[in-house]
Design a protein that fits this description.
The chain is an alpha+beta fold. It has helices at 13-28, 80-115, and strands spanning 36-42, 59-69, 72-78. The chain has two helices and three strands.
């Protein structure tokens, strides 16, 4: 009845494993801070400055946190103390993103296989179709 349109996408072991890792990571995470942090140590232009000595003692660290807000890049500078305090929140968010990417890839493989799309990377994109949908070649497998 209502299940006519439901694709026969069966979870694979890989998909289940990735999903488990994502759930576990989510449960272990606290704050998930977006964006990326860059730590820089710099040289200035003053002649005879300690940053030009041998060995050089560079200025910094300058810790900048950039993230995108509505298409704009927002930068905030962090003290070393702040960076240490929130470091795991940046790393946690990155890990969640990586695992979500993996889950998406695994899900795509499951669904593409179920739908017989054959892993064509352009399948499903909003492009004009180049022809009629390919005939199922393995329709006996139902
Ligand atoms: Zn200097």
């Amino acid at each position: 009845m209502g299940d006519l349109a439901v694709p026969k996408a069966t979870p694979t072991r890989t998909w289940q494993a990735v999903r488990r890792r994502l759930v576990a990571a989510l449960e272990q995470s606290d704050f998930a801070l977006p964006g990326s942090v860059v730590v820089r140590n710099m040289r200035c232009g003053k002649p005879g400055c300690r940053c030009r000595a041998e060995p050089p003692k560079l200025h910094g660290p300058y810790i900048s946190w950039t993230r995108s807000v509505g298409g704009k890049t927002v930068t905030r500078y962090l003290t070393e103390e702040q960076y240490e305090r929130y470091r795991s929140s940046f790393e946690g968010a990155r890990r969640l993103h990586d695992l979500l990417d993996e889950l998406e890839a695994a899900s795509l493989r499951v669904v593409e296989s179920a739908e017989g799309w054959g892993g064509d990377p352009t399948a499903g994109q909003k492009k004009a179709p180049t022809g009629p949908p390919r005939a199922r070649t393995r329709s006996e497998k139902r």
